[in-house]
Amino acid sequence: MIAYRQPLPLGRSLLLGAAGTLAFLGLWAGLARSGLVLHMFLPGPLEVAERFAVLVTTPFAGGTLLAHLASSVLRFLGGFLLAAFVGIPLGLMMGWSRLLDDIVTPIFDALRFIAPIAWVPFAALWFGTGIGGPLLIIFAGAFPPCLINAYRGARYVDRRLIEAAAMLGTPGHRVITEVMLPAALPSIVAGLRISAGLGWQSLVGAELIVASTGVGYMMVQAQGAVSTTTVMVGMAAIGLIGVAIDLGLRLVEARIRAHLGQA
Amino acid sequence: MRLSRRTYVGATTLLVLALLWYLATSGLGLVSAGRFPAPGDVEAAAVQAFGRGYPDATLVTHILHSLKLVAIGFAVSVALGVPLGLLMGWNRVAEALINPVFLVLRPIPPLAWIPLAILWLGLGDEAKVMVIFLAAFPPAVISTHAGVRAVPPPVVEAAQMLGTPRLRFVLEVLAPAAAPMIFTGLRLSLQASWTTLVAAELVGSLAGLGYVLNVAQQDLYPGMILVGMAAVGVLGAGSTALLGLAERRAVVWAQGATE
To answer: Which ipTM did the prediction report?
Structure first.
């Protein structure tokens, strides 16, 4: 008989977690050393860590790791903020105005299934490979969750609040900023987290294809030079920044929830 | 049948957009043909893509190629991911052992595996299947896991009290109860499969929709870019609809199994 729902004691769960992580790293290191796989294609975890430290100070593909990361993060912020500044107000207004909802929804639905990365050719054609091209792709990835969550948040606002505000003669734009926005805030912030994840992933894709700086570009150059260690350093850096972005937004989310008394 | 206001407004919007598109390109020439194609250019590109082929095979061939890779990557992800998720949801030791691996690897976006996949497997189909698998596998595992954990304890206890054998317990109690969550995960997996495939094909390939987009971009052929994007959208929508159909069937089956 299995004891189904009682959680494992914390100590044992941590122990098993550490064992799992160590087993993963050990398997990786063992496989790298065994000679079963060409070392060139599977360097061990320690080598990747060393290479990471080296790349922080030594330039590769036109810049140090930090310089590449800085340009990636700047692009990401540009596309993400643009998506938030367009998507959230538009979503709120769609939640408020039936007409706008009916106008935007068919356009949105028609574009929804096109993978953000499929905008790459137009992005390159219109804006080139500097900031603009990748920015459009990040925007394409980050925009839908911003819009959808603001819209859902606004739709689920208690109708009585809106009616009360309207009855008191509150003008439309103030209904949106002072009634709907606060009520929809938790849903919006949840949308921002999804959107940051998708935007960051789109950025990586964009930089692999259309960019001349950034961590994705560094990885493509490393792939061309058959430097597996550098490729893996890029992957680790991308993962770390992704986690940092998500943690930042989680903090914001927790603050807002606490502020609204929903902690 | 009376059409709703929503349908009217929606249809009008799309018509107005089509008209604006025509006016801005061929009508008034506000947008140059090198930047965005006119309706005529798209038609010509579509005729070429389906007829003579572009760049060297017809669009149908490219679509089938992409579809095959997505189907393989997605099928393998589901076949391995759902059982693993069930196991993790039901066996706490497996959960505690496997979770950390996901925690370590999950922050790495699937697209970031593309250069490594190319280094390991080259520019052929194997590398694409590998990255599709890496993109589609985690959502399948994670949603199944979460679905099993959300099964109400009384259901589990009742089955245990009746002494249901383990295999039957998993297949006839856990899986059906977790079915809605599992399908949510599969939808995410499918979406991720398409995104990853297009990205991998754009980075380097010799066939498929990403290849069409890539060559069209290098040839400065906006009409063909739009045809390629439309094909990506239609396939994404079509396969999602197919999955929805499968979901309705499975839910009916699951209800039968739990009753």
So the answer is: 0.86
